[in-house]
Design a protein that fits this description.
3-stranded antiparallel sheet, 199 residues, elongated, 3 helices
């Protein structure tokens, strides 16, 4: 039996933005931003044929705010304070009866940690992203949106690949030696990336 099945909602989040322009920490019945998980966060229904436990996590990119400035004879557009975060859908995450133990929870936590790592990578990459052109305005903004969409799509592919590799190498958490290696690896990766701040 599979120990874990990771559900990744790999879609660009459109229209999700706090009124102040900055994302806020979320932790309610349906969703939570990155944190240390407990079994009370896994509220989804038991699904026949699903693994022992599963987590639905996504990297969310809120709608971009764009900063355009004139540089010499041209213009440069950049994302302004891009809001990116890892998010868990609690209502799509769950566990089979008898599957709620510390080992399984630790395996699911690392899936969320991997989503968080990719959120941090995306923030760093977007901070260095820009497009330039001879004119500013909507054309340059569209060019920036297209570039950011490609970066986001690549990030999601990389995330999906890493999640699948994690489950494959650990056999969904049943290989304790491999699980320990992944814990060390992901802990080091997270430590190497600057954490973001949600209000």
């Amino acid at each position: 039996m599979r120990l874990c099945s990771t559900l990744l909602a790999l879609a660009l989040a459109l229209g999700v933005s706090a009124s102040s322009g900055a994302a806020t920490r979320i932790d309610h019945e349906a969703e939570c931003t990155y944190k240390t998980l407990s079994w009370s966060d896994f509220r989804g229904p038991v699904v026949r044929g699903q693994g022992v436990a599963w987590i639905a996590s996504v990297v969310v990119l809120d709608p971009l705010k764009i900063q355009t400035e004139q540089v010499g004879d041209g213009f440069v557009a950049r994302p302004r304070n891009a809001v990116v975060y890892a998010l868990m859908n609690k209502l799509e995450s769950g566990a089979q009866p008898g599957g709620r133990n510390d080992r399984t929870l630790a395996h699911e936590q690392l899936h969320f940690d991997i989503s968080e790592y990719h959120a941090r990578l995306l923030i760093r990459e977007l901070a260095a992203t820009e497009v330039s052109g001879s004119e500013g305005g909507p054309a340059l903004a569209n060019q920036l949106h297209a570039k950011v969409a490609k970066i986001y799509e690549r990030t999601m592919r990389d995330l999906f690949t890493m999640q699948a590799r994690y489950d494959g190498e650990t056999v969904h958490g049943t290989k304790s030696r491999q699980q320990k290696k992944w814990v060390i690896r992901v802990t080091e990766l997270l430590a190497a990336e600057e954490p973001y701040d949600l209000k």
